[in-house]
Predict the structure.
Amino acid sequence: MIYKFYKYQGAGNDFIIIDNRENIFVKSNNKLIEFLCHRRFGIGADGLMTLELSDDFDFRMTYFNSDGFEASMCGNGGRCIVAFANHLGIIGGRTKFLAADGSHDAFLDDKLVDLHMIDVNEINSLTDGYFLNTGVPHLVHFVDDLHVID
């Protein structure tokens, strides 16, 4: 199967984006997604996204990490897919789209995308850091010597 794809980057993260409004890309093929994201043998990307039709929103974003498995959301990816939807003519200066973690509002201004992530409602303290969810689970560790940490 031949797929037309686009490559976008946001704040240093790069993504493969596929217009999947006609459901031609098989999203359950985790091995294919992992292969496409592979930096030496595939296209190379931090993740892959599909743009899909939605009844209640301008579009739906499905995000896959480079391991081939679906994740709930990626902020930089979300900004890229909004720019892609604008490129396709699906949206104009503002949009409301759906991702696995819920709905998101975004605004475009001269190719800059302002994306509203979900509100962080809870921050859990751990013995060595903090856990919070911005639409994607995050573990935060504070260190004194970042330059020596791999």
Q: What stands out?
A: The chain has two helices and eleven strands.
